[in-house]
Amino acid sequence: MALKAQVLYDFAAEAGNNELTVKEGETVTITNQSIGGGWIEAQNSRGEVGLVPEDYIEFSKPLPSFSGAGTTAPTPSVGNVASADLSFFDAYAPASAPAQTQASNGNDPWSVWNTDPSGGANNNNWASNPEGTQTGKSAADPWGSVSQGHPQAYQGPGAEDDEWDDEWDDVKSSGGYAESESGDGGAMQRGGAQGSSMKISLNKFPGFSKSGPDLYLLCKQLAKGKERLLIYMGEVGPVWSYPETQLDCVVADPKKGTKMYGLKSYIEYQVTPNTTNRPVNHRYKHFDWLYERLLDKFGSAIPIPALPDKQVTGRFEEEFIKMRMERLQGWMTRMCRHPIVSSSDVFQLFLTYKDEKDWKMGKRKAEKDETVGVMIFSTIEPEATDLDPVEVEQKCEQFSRFTKAMDDGVKEILTVGNEHWKRCTGPLPKEYQRIGKAFQNLSSVFTSSGYQGESTLTDAMTEAGKTYEEIAQMVAEQPKKDLHFLMETNNEYKGLLGCFPDTIGVHKAAIDKVKEGDKLVATSKITAHDKVTMAKRVSTMSYSLQAEMNHFHSNRIYDYNRVMQLYLEEQVKFYETIAEKLRQAHSQFTTM
Amino acid sequence: MALKAQVLYDFAAEAGNNELTVKEGETVTITNQSIGGGWIEAQNSRGEVGLVPEDYIEFSKPLPSFSGAGTTAPTPSVGNVASADLSFFDAYAPASAPAQTQASNGNDPWSVWNTDPSGGANNNNWASNPEGTQTGKSAADPWGSVSQGHPQAYQGPGAEDDEWDDEWDDVKSSGGYAESESGDGGAMQRGGAQGSSMKISLNKFPGFSKSGPDLYLLCKQLAKGKERLLIYMGEVGPVWSYPETQLDCVVADPKKGTKMYGLKSYIEYQVTPNTTNRPVNHRYKHFDWLYERLLDKFGSAIPIPALPDKQVTGRFEEEFIKMRMERLQGWMTRMCRHPIVSSSDVFQLFLTYKDEKDWKMGKRKAEKDETVGVMIFSTIEPEATDLDPVEVEQKCEQFSRFTKAMDDGVKEILTVGNEHWKRCTGPLPKEYQRIGKAFQNLSSVFTSSGYQGESTLTDAMTEAGKTYEEIAQMVAEQPKKDLHFLMETNNEYKGLLGCFPDTIGVHKAAIDKVKEGDKLVATSKITAHDKVTMAKRVSTMSYSLQAEMNHFHSNRIYDYNRVMQLYLEEQVKFYETIAEKLRQAHSQFTTM
């Protein structure tokens, strides 16, 4: 019997990819579910049959997950993409994604611990699918504002890890389509996905989902491992202990590798830490693995920013690789700058493993690590005296206010910047071009006058016209030189800020738990001693949050100083060059 | 019984002027036709009653013409005007005027001598109504391209001369509404109107309308008057004889005068020629009188550019007067620069009359002048030998090609410039403003962080934000500083070029006449001697046209050199200032 489905978003088929163009609200008949790679074969009312992104349609009954998905997927469509430039930053702008894809816990960052059905349902899915399209969507924007692109056709839920990642290393099969969705969509998905994945790691512990950080707050004995994360009192307040020399690394020299006798291809990046100066090779899937480990281990205490989305922009292989590398570099630099993350075993392993065997061993060890989720707080040791719960709550409130406000500010810049990008690459240069043409046309009319002594004027006017054509080109190319970095930095911060609701959520939950301490004692759910312990541990959590905020602030000040300087520097050059060109053109005219 | 009418164009009512907003195609009921001043009281389907520009609606039966029109008119609307700047140059752009308002002779400049009914019908109208809405419209663009604004609400057809001119001197009753129509609309109207008015002057002579320049070509004896317009052979070919010292004058010091015990007010301008340095006073109506005289006398040989339209832009009295004065100055300067016009009795009278009596006498004399229309050629004496008709025709063709091509080129600049003006005063500054606001907003979020050592960054970001707000303002104000003059000059040339089809048309007609010379002799319509005379006289006409073209070219080269220099100079300043401001902003950020 035929399975009907509802189309959620418009999709423009790309010629030659046997895709099917569908409109939002249209009903289609599913003719083949086992295409894989996030694609589905469907038939529309006119009997036309073609491939449609799975996530663009809503089924009456759930789909089975496909193993080996994607290997047979067609090149994704770029049909709905205007231009590389536009589409790239379209991603930054709050897209008009349907609100219903926002799960309740996505809409209210502070209700993150409510057992949300969709959220819950997604956890298993998530466990087997690090990309977590569904989860990503449901919690796409933890602030609740709708700022997510269309779901991405190119993510088969439950697709077996190694398989889909090869697909993702294989540029050819990604390329264009990604453009219209990439950047923000991805970043925010990971931002959201992280919230969910954090739940997963916590879910490893029974009864957690109900009581959040209880596991840490109430566990009888904190096993003293070799891990000790110290917090000192600095000038600005609680701070992590920073290493003597700042760790850093260079991501470079992407190489295309193949496996299975060249049947599958992937990109390998060379990562060289400044400590050993010895390069190690990593594929995107390894970065992704590292991200998952850091998320599990530190996510409750430290916002782990999203990895650059798999589908970064770039119509062509070179562009694609360059862009992904640039963003991986940015992500690695941020991780290196974090004292806790950079000094962790798993991060060190990633940067300095000696050989395949070493890597495999380290991998297994990291995956077996039990000190994850809220248990990370058990390794944190503040040197300062305990804070009373009231102060803890005040700090927590302050941080959530600030991060929310900054998230709004960053999004405003991204929106405005995106519009400015469009104008600079669209109408504005066209206009300067037409001004240039108009001058040149009039000049050539003058040349036809047959009047003597015309040439000085006509040459000068032609020159002026050409100058405005040059200005047109300059205007169109400028955003790549300055706005690009302003957008990238703000986009990075948008992703980072998207992680805070979850991080702060853990603290909120802990605070609430402490608040009901008396009641719990009264009903003898816990002992009086437990209650004292909880207060002590919530104080530790607060110090950790403060240390993290101070780390965030110092980095923020550095980053925004840098990016603003770079932006203004390039802007100055831009306007000076134009002025110079025009001065040149002006000198061609004779005063009579 | 109720008179129904059809709305021709959208009209947005201005608040407080009891106007009525109407949409194109809407049917309204006329509730009061005797408002005057080009306004009508109408009621829409929703029963709302208000004033609508008379020319915006189409009646089933013609309206009576109102004497004293406008005296009771409300302040005309600026409701459909976005901003003074926009509306001003909207006028330059080819507006979407209904094509049917183009009379056939308007569509084909070279059929200008066909006796066109509408053209003919308008002549009388024109005689009694120098503003000639109808005529102006019908021949609005002699090149045939539709480039006329909406008809102007503020012209009571047949309004008695002295009346309307007082009205037009009285700024209050003009002002705002004019904006949306002025400039080009007016200029081209006069350009077109001139074609018609030339016919009038020629029509003074029986049988002319059929045979164009016959009067001159075939008149038995050319009365040798004191007037002798010599043409010399210069380097560039035939040239007028230029005076030793270039005549020039300054139009300044507009004063509001009143008459009829202050019931009527008008503006008087002080005109001071560089010859006597003695100022004389003139009202707009006097300039208009001069224009009509020059048109009658020289129009066949010399394109007399349109006077600045009565309804020049300016929402406020000061703006209005300033703008009109600027344009009157431009017109006078151009007339002064013309050797034939500037040395004519009527022009000298205008600049140097001693007293009221002197003025009145000179006026009467000028109005009695018989050497007008094509008879001006009878006063022209070329020093060179006669040209053969073939060469005459080639020259004529060349000039018409060039002037047509230049007219297109000029219009292109006006269109592009108009769009650029809109962008610079509209979306662009808004965008820079939003960029500035975005920086400042993020800065104030940062200030709320409670983190130490924040101030340097936040101050710098606020500074940068303010800088972009300043840039926004600069962008919005720049067009007034440079584009304005580029537009004014091109608009002036557009008006001038609009006169050429008529001037060249006279020559075409003459050439055709000579061509049929043999036939005329054969049918003994003319004698063999007449035929020789015709050829000789057409050669004289050709020399005059060549002298005029050479005069046009040398002025054109001077004008465009000047305006391009001025434009580029201001553009350079503009971009340099922006660069400097941004350099300032950049220096606020600290490198760490």
Automatic annotation (TrEMBL), chains A, B:
InterPro entries: AH/BAR_dom_sf (IPR027267), PX_dom (IPR001683), PX_dom_sf (IPR036871), SH3-like_dom_sf (IPR036028), SH3_domain (IPR001452), Snx9_fam (IPR014536), SNX9_PX (IPR037426), SNX9_SH3 (IPR035558)
Single Gene Ontology BP annotation: endocytosis
Record's protein name: Sorting nexin
Bias kind Acidic residues: ranges: 159-169
GO cellular component: cytoplasmic vesicle membrane; plasma membrane
Molecular-function GO terms, alphabetical: phosphatidylinositol binding
Organism: Scophthalmus maximus (Turbot)
Keywords recorded for this protein, A-Z: Cytoplasmic vesicle, Membrane, Protein transport, SH3 domain, Transport
Family: Belongs to the sorting nexin family.
Residue span(s) of domain PX: 247-357
